[in-house]
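In the previous lecture we treated proteins in isolation. Real proteins rarely work alone, and many bind small molecules. This record shows how such a complex is specified: first the sequence, then the SMILES for pyridoxal-5'-phosphate.
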Amino acid sequence: MTPTPSPAAVPHSPAAAVPLLDVTRTNAAIRDEVLQLWAQIYDQGGFIGGPHVKNLEAELARVCESRHAIACASGSDALVLALMATGIEPGDEVICPAFTFFATASAVWRLGATPVFADIDPQTFNMDPAHVRSLINNHTKAILPVHLFGLSCDMAAFQEICATEDLWLIEDCAQSIGARYQGQAVGSIGDVGCFSFYPSKNLGGFGDGGFMTTNDDQVAAQLRIFANHGMTETYRHEYVGLNSRLDSLQAAALWVKCRQLDELAEQRRANVVLYQKLFADCQLDSVFGLPTEPSDCFHVWNQYTIRIPDGRRDEIKAALAERKIGASVYYPIPLSRQRCFADLGYPDGSLPHTEQACREVLSLPVFPGLTHSEQDRVVASLHDAWHSQSRLRAAG
Ligand SMILES: *Cc1c(COP(=O)(O)O)cnc(C)c1O
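The predicted 3D structure, ligand included, written as tokens:
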């Protein structure tokens, strides 16, 4: 049994916690509409594929300004399927960042190909085209840039490299639905775009899900075949594919949620403008490295990620936790340094900008529905943490 805390242990006026993410606030607005659709599906049967998935795919193609959108079971599967559909095989090399979620590189590994890690541009956290260029050899088959935290990569550079070297360009758009590069929607620029409906993403579902975009009819056909057991006609298998489908319940809810997408992105952008002001007001804008939006990009801020200098990231994070402020480190360990990739041979120091980012970054709450006073508390807590610990250090 959990002992009941004594009243004395309860603070008098506890400041409410500020969560890193609260999906219930924006999901509340569509609750009745979604539950109504779910009740219909419940009563009618038909839980896989069907009209709800078709409708969602049409809407996603429109949102992502692509000829085709193909639903699948997760963002991780979308990456595997994109690599399968472009014919990536054992022995091939695919260049990707090490400062990203695990799935970017594990998809390459799954197919028996080799992930080759490029360093990042410290300003944008995105893969550095100059370093990518230096890694290309005869085995290189594809470049897999990640539009991290909601910001597009320098796609003109990657398009140019892929055109001259005859490589596939596959975009990991899991964190960046709605983001733009020189006016173009991410996922419509390369050969395939891979997206996720994981609940923490900008179009978050009610469970797992994902999709792929492409403007190439042949690649689209391959993606559909590989997502359905490599089956070309009923019970005829030309390839060994995956079972990777989106169910009707997810599709129906996501279709409703698509309508909110622009508004949700605007709310994230407004939250970032407010952070910028609050940090400037207390002169923390010159202490922390604050993220910025390049002039040719439309940032959708899946994460608002700052840098904490002087090796103090972990103490500041702990101080925020004490004040019940949600903050998290995306990502603490470069993929090049993960145990499962030890055989790839990236010693400490091989990707200096990636490694420094892993030591310095901290992501703060930026989700739609976050209130002004919650943002005030986040910045005030950071201010207190930074200065009180500075005092302690000076005293010690
Ligand atoms: C979330 C994410 C994925 C994987 O998506 P899932 O739907 O969780 O499988 C892939 N790449 C990046 C960059 C992600 O953030």
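Summary for your notes: Residues 74-76, 100-101, 103-104, 146, 172, 174-175, 196, 198, 208, 210 surround pyridoxal-5'-phosphate (CB under 6 Å). The chain has two domains: 24-118+126-258, 261-395.
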